[in-house]
Amino acid sequence: MIGLALPAPPPADDVVRLRPWRAADVPSLVLAYRDPLVQRFSWRTTPYSDADAQHDLAEHEQARRRGESLACALVDSHDEHRLLGGVALHDVRRDHGRASVGYWLAPGARGRGAATHGVRLLARWALDELGLARLELTCGPDNEASQRVAERCGFTREGVLRSHVPFQGGRRDSVLFSLLPGELR
Ligand SMILES: CC(C)(COP(=O)(O)OP(=O)(O)OC[C@H]1O[C@@H](n2cnc3c(N)ncnc32)[C@H](O)[C@@H]1OP(=O)(O)O)[C@@H](O)C(=O)NCCC(=O)NCCS
């Protein structure tokens, strides 16, 4: 197996469900990426258009087929048309038993645990079904909400990666977290 795919039925709990991205999600995606908090912590350029979103979804699909990443829409578990945000496994290195986790929420979906629930579902699948031995999560040192999501899921803060990524015209440090099998909360 090279490509990555969510199981059927896809991971869900009483709050959220993961599902593949659809072309019909483009307008919600464009709206969500306009949010100042997403802009502040994101690499994405503004303005973000329908064409940019379509391009991103096509890239996600190609990377999924190559087995490099799996980007999932995070939707309400009772209404799969209600987009809450996104969660993704990226930099998947099955030969090394390792991948990274990323996530974001639309402004109206915050403060209810949706990201925490989504990361837990994705991490459970990655550890149990893909058999990965380590999940990594990096975020900006000033992204406190993101760090709280990591900690609630059981990730351990390992340290600061200096000048880690190109970011908004300069470079940015990242806080590195990891999660090993048996540590998911
Ligand atoms: C990072 C981000 C997803 C966090 O969103 P969030 O709403 O704080 O996260 P959750 O959905 O897990 O909700 C957690 C909050 O809901 C509360 N909550 C309510 N019910 C909850 C439940 N059942 N389970 C967990 N938390 C719950 C928690 O107390 C928490 O609030 P607190 O952090 O003030 O204590 C959001 O800030 C975001 O989209 N930021 C922009 C993009 C971004 O930074 N992405 C990460 C890049 S590394």
Automatic annotation (TrEMBL):
InterPro entries: Acyl_CoA_acyltransferase, GNAT_dom, Ribosomal_N-acetyltransferase. Keywords: Transferase. Pfam families: Acetyltransf_3 (PF13302). Signal peptide: none annotated. One of its GO terms (molecular function) is protein-N-terminal-alanine acetyltransferase activity. SUPFAM superfamilies: Acyl-CoA N-acyltransferases (Nat). PROSITE patterns: GNAT. Residues 16-182 form the N-acetyltransferase domain. One of its GO terms (cellular component) is cytoplasm. It comes from the Bacteria. This is GNAT family N-acetyltransferase. It comes from Goekera deserti. The lineage of its organism: Bacteria, Bacillati, Actinomycetota, Actinomycetes, Geodermatophilales.
